[in-house]
Amino acid sequence: LAPRVHDGDTIRCGRERIRIAAIDAPELPDSPKCESARDPRAWCDYAKGYASRDSLRAFLAQGPVKVQRLGTDRYGRTLARLTVNGRDAGEYLIRKRLARRWL
Fold first, then answer.
1. pTM for the structure as a whole
2. Alpha-carbon gap, residue 76 to 56, rounded angstroms
3. What whole-number distance in Å separates Cα of residue 87 and Cα of residue 95?
4. CB-based burial of residue 64 (10 Å sphere; 0-12 exposed, 13-18 middle, 19+ buried)?
């Protein structure tokens, strides 16, 4: 199944929601994290949020996506490292300044 990109750090493969481990990408306008400054850690730069999502989509389209599952997050999403042709998706977005490290 080809992954569907939700935003710069989350994809869906069939029914499985996968969050890219160890990064944080900017939020999109529909994010509840950005309502009334609800979460002070939220990165609410919507233009960068769209750029991050679109860059991840283009990156994943370059070849078969390998998913290395690492666990789950508090929302029940799979935490994983995603690679395409040996290149790490999270590191790619960080280098483009469309994500930041998150531990």
1. 0.91
2. 21
3. 12
4. exposed
3-class state of residue 33 by DSSP: helix
DSSP string of 49-75?
HHHHHHHHHHHHTTSPEEEEEEEE-TT
Tokens of 69: 């599952």
DSSP 76: S
- Burial level of 20, CB count in 10 A (0-12/13-18/19+)? buried
d(Cα 19, Cα 39) in Å, to the nearest integer?
Answer: 18
Q: pLDDT per residue over 43-92, tens digit each?
A: 889 999 999 999 999 999 999 999 999 999 999 999 999 999 999 999 99
